[in-house]
Description:
- This protein is about 0% helix and about 50% strand.
- The chain has strands at about 5, 10-15, 20-25, 35-40, 45-50, 60, 70-75, 80-85, 90-100, 115, 120-125.
- Strands 2, 4, 5, 6, 9, 10 and 11 form a 7-stranded mixed sheet that branches.
Amino acid sequence: QVQLVESGGGLVQAGGSLRLSCVASGLPFSTYYMGWFRQAPGQEREFVAAISWSGGTTDYADSVKGRFTISRDNAKNTVYLQMNSLKPEDTAHYYCARGRGGVLRIGKRNNGEYAYWGQGTQVTVSS
Length: 127
């Protein structure tokens, strides 16, 4: 069965850190780029970060550059999102998604660039 399962969300104070994990099962993982998206209530889903199949190329939304780091461990079929210096505006439901190829190029920031999605994990940052 195809699954992308996120974990690691929770409630933290502003300035704190969280590490999200996404484990893939039942689908190819190691040869595809992966991404993280987030959606707050009443807002559109927005791109957060992406990583190429090998981990050699990454891309970040301007709002998280310098604070978030995406990484992957293909041996564990897992992609991570390390979130530091969290702000209240980072509060959202965070989703993991698998891409449609291996190479990460400009333009891999839209829903249509990804083939599979997880159920997400909630991140809440208090002030």
